[in-house]
Specification:
By secondary structure, the chain is α+β, with helices and mostly antiparallel strands. The chain contains 14 helices and eleven strands. The chain is globular, with a radius of gyration of 28 Å.
């Protein structure tokens, strides 16, 4: 039924009038679209069609996200279905256009870029899920292997799977580059984007130090720095015994809850027990401090001994943590240890937290106030151009879609 003006389901190849066959319950979604039912055409365009089994994953993912954001699956299901139908049909139209333009074949440069991007994404997954795996007492290589196994077994992610996924989707990047090839950015656009970002960050970061710190950790373009910040790196020597880590955390909490004026004896007793837990780690830390004082490279020691995964990934690997006396996302002992250092390059004594022992190095000061446009011009240009390319891509997709007379049949699943 190419006209979209009617037609019985029984007229479609392999179709059935029993629409309940299209739906089941999966992953907490009461009306999940099944990939196993006999497919029917749910949308088409001049030159192609979209089958029900081809939209199942996208629809179920969209419904799962809706529920995650506390949407109403009963009242919003039709809206989600219509949106997914258009999105998936648009992909088909764009893929057909990419084929016509010769953009679906992958050359050696494409494959190299795919492998590099996949490795970066895999490293990010490894860092994100590292806290889900007990790597106590493991070398870095052993820890990575354990995390990789967790990713494969529990999350369903491997480096190879990411590479294959990117191969299947890379035509979209090439088509986007094709559409955006002639797009440039003017000086006026750069200045306007900088001014808008400066106004936004000045208001946001002045009010919330956490927002500023997270923006730094995420590698966002920073054009305004609040007062009192510095960059620090650290070597974390983590507890190798889970019981010791739990005991340290409990004792730190106990000490914090005691009143030093009336419960000094209890504090001293708890502190003695706490200090004993750090004996071996303190010895390791002091050995490393001796190496540093003798000229050992601090970054090399982080890579060899450090057990904070964030120190292995950008931008923290290069810049360190952005921290001030008011920072709250780290334990107070770590903040105090970082802020007591007086000059860049200075390292701390062993600092105790519930994670273990830290050797902190003061990297550099953060100059407060607006960051000059000249210092962030390249990043601003990239952001403005990316936004313009996104707009051009969306507009061209809509134009190409309109040219091929799209028709949608959501009723065939109802």
């Amino acid at each position: 039924d190419a006209s979209g003006n009617g037609g019985e389901l029984s007229d479609l190849s392999g179709a059935t009038s029993d629409t309940s066959a299209f739906w089941n319950e999966a992953n907490g979604i009461s009306q999940a679209l099944s990939k196993d039912a006999t497919p029917v055409v749910v949308a088409e365009f001049d030159g192609g069609e979209l089958m029900s089994n081809e939209i199942a994953d996208a629809y179920n993912d969209a419904m799962g996200m809706l529920m995650l954001n506390f949407g109403d699956p009963d009242s919003d299901a039709d809206t989600v279905l219509n949106r997914v139908l258009k999105e998936e049909l648009t992909k088909k139209v764009l893929h057909k256009k990419a084929e016509e333009l010769g953009l679906t074949e992958l050359n050696s440069a494409d494959l190299a870029a795919i492998e590099t991007d996949a490795q970066t994404e895999f490293n990010d997954h490894r860092a994100f899920y590292s806290g889900s795996v007990d790597t106590t007492g493991m070398t870095q290589a052993e820890a990575n292997a354990a995390i990789d196994k967790y990713l494969a077994d529990e999350v369903g992610i491997t480096l190879d799977s990411l590479i294959e996924q990117r191969k299947a989707e890379y035509w979209q990047d090439k088509l986007r580059d094709y559409i955006g090839a002639s797009i440039t950015v003017t000086d006026e656009e750069i200045q306007a984007a900088y001014d808008a970002k400066l106004a936004d960050q000045t208001a946001t970061f002045t009010e919330s130090s956490e927002d500023f710190e997270y923006a730094n950790m995420l590698g966002e373009t920073i054009v305004f720095n609040p007062e009192g910040y510095r960059y620090v790196k650290h070597i974390l020597l983590a507890f190798t015994d889970a019981d010791a880590k739990n005991d340290a955390s409990a004792l730190i909490s106990t000490i914090a809850a005691l009143d030093p004026e009336t419960q000094l004896a209890q504090i001293e007793e708890a502190q003695t027990q706490l200090d004993a837990l750090y004996t071996d780690l303190d010895q390791q830390a002091n050995d490393l401090i001796e190496q540093i004082n003798a000229g050992a490279d601090f970054d090399a020691l982080i890579a060899q001994y450090g057990q904070d995964d964030a120190m292995n990934y950008e931008p923290t690997k290069t810049k360190g943590y952005c921290i001030s006396a008011n920072s709250t996302q780290w334990e107070s002992a770590f903040v105090e240890g970082a802020m007591m250092l007086e000059t860049p390059g200075q390292i701390s004594v062993p600092i105790h937290t519930s994670s273990g022992v830290h050797i902190i190095r003061y990297e550099s000061d953060v100059t407060p106030g607006p960051v000059p446009l000249a210092d962030v011009r390249d990043q601003i240009v990239a952001e403005v151009r990316e936004e313009k390319v996104d707009d051009a891509y969306d507009a061209q997709a809509e134009a190409w879609l309109a040219e091929v007379n799209p028709r949608y049949y959501p009723e065939r699943l109802q």
